[in-house]
Specification:
The protein has 384 residues and is an alpha/beta fold. Helices cover 30% and strands 21% of the residues. The structure holds glycine (GLY).
Length: 384
């Protein structure tokens, strides 16, 4: 186990503890870790006063290892691809375990540019992604319109990333709660203010932005404002692909669901409030309607804001905390919490059970931010 030897179900220090593993945070990452650990025979408690109310509540659920492969993030891109490859199996297993429909869809993603400048910006990024060998292909305008006739005639061009899929994060969290409970995990509503309040020899801090106060790790809130529209008559939206668009310099994504919902996102703001602003709603709606005009007729059913857990290098923080035996972090997933859920859960569970970190974890360890004393640096030390 982390605090001394592998935590196999035989070797775990059951001592005075009623649980083998405590998880702080019942978002998708925390719940998936709880589910996986419980399924391996470990006794698991999950602490969260408001399960599923964090970043996942507003997340669109894009599983986008290709279209979200950004300049300068090679290691993160590798982890996104690894986790996306696990998604089909993870989704099937979870749907079966929970008896639930996750809203998992594999229609692929279109990347489009409205104006010539927008298209040039989009092309620059997809050329980089192609250079990494990622599956994204340019489409002729006629091919684009054949795939999605709902796109505005003035959309100049685009590309398709067929392997970039989607899931409904709210359904995902509900299913994970059911699956974790069915596997034997206990969900407790009490708030935790420090890992040592959790009565377990291994504690996983999967509390999103809350991880900063719990661990001192450099996790900061990155605000995202998101809208939810609904197709008229409660029918399905008039397009099936996830659409990531550049429209007069605005970046927007449109995620259609079978239920008729379309998620329109998102701002990326270095702020810690969750107010919805008129300006953000205006910009998101203008970009959305410019790309897909029929959206003007949809009902606006929700405008919300959430806080992504950002890190200094935009990559998640996964692994043992230096100088804190038995405490693990699984946080800092920033814009990628949903796609990274399967790989994070698998790697953390394997580490807990075997005591040996998978090499995949090496770039994402908490000690990459360690200060001179070997402790995680604080936010102030990192950003000031
Ligand atoms: N991954 C989408 C977002 O963070 O807005």
């Amino acid at each position: 186990m982390l605090s001394g030897g592998p935590a196999t179900t035989e070797s775990v220090n059951r001592g005075p503890f009623l649980a083998d593993v405590g998880v702080v945070g019942a978002g998708p990452v925390g719940l998936a870790i709880a589910w996986r650990c419980a399924a391996r025979g470990l006794r698991v408690v999950v602490h969260d006063p408001a399960p599923g109310s964090g970043a996942s509540h507003v997340a669109a659920g894009m599983l986008s290892p290709v279209a979200e492969a950004y300049f300068g993030e090679r290691e993160l891109t590798g982890l996104l691809a690894e986790s996306a490859a696990r998604w089909p199996g993870f989704a099937a297993e979870l749907a079966e375990a929970a008896g639930a429909d996750l809203g998992y869809r594999t229609d692929g993603t279109l990347v489009v540019g409205l104006t010539a400048d927008d298209l040039a910006e989009a092309r620059r990024l997809w050329a980089y992604q192609q250079g990494l060998g990622l599956p994204i292909s340019a489409l002729r305008p006629s091919q684009l319109r054949d795939r999605e006739p709902a796109l505005a005639p003035r959309v100049r061009g685009g590309a398709v990333a067929p392997g970039d899929h989607q899931v409904d994060p709210r359904r995902l969290v509900a299913a994970l709660r059911t699956a974790a409970r069915r596997a034997g995990a206990t969900l407790l509503p009490g708030a935790v203010t420090a890992p040592n309040e959790v009565a377990a020899p291994v504690v996983v801090v999967a509390a999103g932005c809350g991880a900063a106060a719990l661990t001192g790790l450099p996790v900061r809130p990155v605000k995202g404002q998101v809208l939810r529209l609904r197709a008229p008559g409660r029918g399905a939206p008039g397009f099936r692909h996830v659409i990531r668009g550049y429209a007069d310099g605005e970046s927007v994504y449109l995620v259609p669901r079978d239920s008729g919902e379309v998620v329109v996102g998102a701002t990326v703001e270095e702020r810690a409030d969750t107010e919805v602003t008129a300006g953000a709603v205006l910009r998101l709606l203008r970009a959305a309607v410019d790309l897909v005009p029929e959206l003007a007729e949809y009902e606006l059913v929700e405008a919300s804001a959430g806080l992504r857990p950002g890190t200094p290098d935009n990559a998640p923080i996964i692994g043992p905390l230096p100088g804190r035996p038995g405490v693990l972090a699984a946080t800092g997933h920033h814009r990628h919490g949903i796609v990274l859920t399967p790989v994070t859960a698998d790697l953390v569970t394997e580490l807990i059970v075997t005591g040996t970190p998978d090499p995949l974890l090496a770039p994402f360890r908490p000690d990459r931010f360690a200060g001179a004393a070997g402790q995680p640096v604080t936010q102030e030390e990192t950003w000031n």
